[in-house]
Amino acid sequence: MILRILLLVLFLNIITSYAAVDSETYVVHMDKAKIKALDASLGTSKRWYEAIIESITISSSEGEDQDQSSLPKLLYVYENVVSGFSVKLSEKHVQSIKKVDGFLSVIKDELFVLHTTHSPRFLGLQEGIGLWDHRNLASDVIIGVIDTGIWPEHPSFGGSGLSPVPSHWNGKCQVGTKFAASKCNRKLIGAGAFFKGYEAIAGRINETVDYRSPRDSQGHGTHTASTAGGNLVKGASFLGLAKGSAAGMRYTARIAAYKACYQFGCASSDMLAAIEQAVNDGVDVLSLSLGGASKPFYIDNLAIGAFGAIQNGILVSFSAGNSGPSDSTISNSAPWMMTVAASYMERGFPTKVELGDGQVFLGASLYSGKPTKQLPLVYDEAAGGEDAKFCTKGSLSPRLVKGKIVICERGVNSRVAKGEEVKLAGGAGMILINDENQGEELFVDPHILPATSLGATAAIAIKKYSNFSTNPMAMIAFEGTVYSNPAPIMAAFSSRGPSPIAPDTIKPDITAPGVNILAAWPPNISPTQLNSDKRRIRFNIMSGTSMSCPHISGVAALIKSLHQDWSPAAIKSAIMTTAYTNDSTNSPITDAASISSESATPFAFGSGHIDPEKAADPGLIYDISAEDYIIYLCSLSYNSSQIALFAGGNFSCPSDSDFQPGDLNYTSFAVLFSRKGSNAIVTYKRTLTNVGVPVSSYAVEVNEPKGVSIIVEPKVLDFQKLGEKLSYKVSFVAMGEGVGSTNFSFGSLVWAYQKYCVRSPIAVTWM
Ligand SMILES: *[C@@H]1O[C@H](CO)[C@@H](O)[C@H](O)[C@H]1NC(C)=O
Ligand SMILES: *[C@@H]1O[C@H](CO)[C@@H](O)[C@H](O)[C@H]1NC(C)=O
Ligand SMILES: *[C@@H]1O[C@H](CO)[C@@H](O)[C@H](O)[C@H]1NC(C)=O
Ligand SMILES: *[C@@H]1O[C@H](CO)[C@@H](O)[C@H](O)[C@H]1NC(C)=O
Ligand SMILES: *[C@@H]1O[C@H](CO)[C@@H](O)[C@H](O)[C@H]1NC(C)=O
Ligand SMILES: *[C@@H]1O[C@H](CO)[C@@H](O)[C@H](O)[C@H]1NC(C)=O
Ligand SMILES: CC(=O)N[C@H]1CO[C@H](CO)[C@@H](O)[C@@H]1O
């Protein structure tokens, strides 16, 4: 009953505040070519847009006195990566704006969510060698990170010993709350904060919890920026765990931090402004560890903004999302985006739980103290009232849990908050258990008391023991850091393909370390982010595709400095064709989501796991020009105003073209077949560019997916010089039998010559 009244009140609240505001923020996309022509007569596009707004608001108020100051204010004017503006408008005004000459589309602003040092060695990067050779690191690249801002005083962003700021940098250090211009240096060369869109949606930033400046109040942006390009800092660790040097993938890169994410998320209008600023400032690579639900590219502001960036030669790396392991949970799936999945490294933080009856289970935790004694074990009713099994706030009875180890199930409140509840009630330890859906994937957390996670199988046994033993007991021992787990393993949380928007490409593209990553952290935020946690750290361990994405951004920056003339698609191709798909035991990479330890598929890891040194010298690349992408959009039957969002004006789609979406010169192959029809044939064309050995002869090797036979024509590509392009055709023939009930089958196509292995995964979807 109380709940119903509460819901009703909330509901009414929403309705009334909606009615009171009556207007919402929109991003209005305009035809770049038309606006350019008009600019010449009116001065700047800003004046032109102000005139549009004035005319629609006055015309629609029909003679009522219109006070100048009550006109809707432009939040941003976009002139480079996209063309248009963002503004708060009523529904009526939105209808009038659609009639303005040059109008292309209007997209309601929305909030995106964040996809919340040792990894260099795991990736084979070594000081003084290969990509980390001093000559390669001496050149200048700038990595732009759009996130929650940055903690500028952190040693990962110290500027001493670096050469002057690169001459192609045009940006600045934006001053704001607790952020003086002097906070930028030769490492952190620029910073900006974009919050007009956020404040229009969520209200004014609460300055007791966040800063109206580039300073990071959440830690996420500091962590991701240091993973991509933070300094090499010796002696880093997390409360004694994961000791070693912390270093960004491209640790000599310069960093520009663009803050567009706040307490409740990141507004698309702010994101577009940040992308545009970064492009104008001269960044070489952009890293975005955030996203929203998949939607067609012509209504996806992130896809439209990212396209503007790649047209300016800037590779944009995005996190795939943390919504796995179900199929088609992928975010950020436009083919011009680099979409990054997350996997485990070989590093682990094991624990051992020993029950009173001698059973032993292995778990994981970032708690690093002494083992507990054998202590009484309590669960559910034995620990408190309703919800005691989830250890929610106030659910545990101090009388029942004092001095004992409490079993808590995941869900409802955060994992570290459960530990806090146990500690507040006087408990001595916690065992955090997975249910069947959560399986065996163990999250390690910096608990504030001796605590460990256990997988679903152990959970069943331990619940049974605690229910049926008259005097249940347990102890937890913490075994520190080990470096011997088989790796990589795909993280269950990592979002999966196929992309519902673009099933003609495999997404995600690649996987990189994204579980238990140690990186820089603001000194005023505790590792658990709980108020009761008074510990302060310089480096924190976090997990998510948010953490894997900046690894790829940093590696892209390394490759960019080696091959300054390569396009974003060429760098992407190099990273993808050289990725590996076997783990450290030379068996196919497995999937933490699979109970039967089946191997992971390209819809979990794309082309495989990144191998930076190999990516530096791929032999051949699949290049894609901006025009190639636009022809691809034509093949998706986008109409002229949808095409103009990407092409920036007039683009006539070829009328007699037989180009299909699968002909995009993508590094992987996705094929859709009907389960019933047999002998259906799909033929795709590809073009390879030689960047390896001038005279070289590549031969094709195919590994056919189940139920499909493959014909490649020609079977040998003879290159005579560098930069030469040669094309081939690949036909997939559906045999239509033996596929059974599987929805997908997988294979690969490799062009091999001497040390080079240019590999593309193949994914067939049976519909
Ligand atoms: C658009 O294309 C048409 C026909 O190709 C051409 O006449 C016109 O000048 C173009 N407009 C702009 C603004 O480029
Ligand atoms: C701002 O945040 C603080 C701390 O959470 C809270 O106490 C305060 O009420 C908030 N202020 C507003 C205006 O929401
Ligand atoms: C243990 O008891 C709880 C209720 O207290 C019950 O929900 C659970 O199913 C029992 N588990 C086993 C394995 O018997
Ligand atoms: C990957 O593992 C499979 C199965 O163990 C093996 O057949 C294959 O040769 C391995 N591939 C590479 C590149 O080592
Ligand atoms: C393109 O399609 C959109 C959405 O269906 C529509 O609103 C728009 O008017 C179309 N534009 C043209 C030029 O047909
Ligand atoms: C195949 O797809 C269908 C429909 O999406 C789903 O119900 C089924 O579980 C899938 N099969 C497998 C083996 O994943
Ligand atoms: C830049 C580039 O090489 N683009 C090529 C990609 O492949 C398609 C299909 O083979 C070609 O038409 C493009 O020219």
Q: Which labels suit this protein?
A:
single chain; 767 residues; alpha/beta; Alpha-Beta Plaits; Rossmann fold; Glucose Oxidase, domain 1; 4 domains; seven-stranded parallel β-sheet; seven-stranded mixed β-sheet; 19 helices; 37 strands; globular; disordered N terminus; binds 2-acetamido-2-deoxy-beta-D-glucopyranose; glycoprotein; EC 3.4.21.25
Instruction: Give the overall average pLDDT.
Output: 90
Domain count: 4
What is the alpha-carbon Rg in Å? Answer: 27 Å
Task: Give the terminus-to-terminus CA distance.
Answer: 46 Å
Number of helices: 19
| CATH superfamily caption of the largest domain | Peptidase S8/S53 domain
Give the CATH level 1 class of the largest domain.
Alpha Beta
Q: What's the total number of strands?
A: 37
Task: Kindly report the spatial arrangement of strands forming the biggest sheet.
Answer: 7-10-6-13-15-16-25
Model regions low in confidence, pLDDT < 50 over at least 5 residues:
1-21, 62-66
CATH topology of the largest domain: Rossmann fold
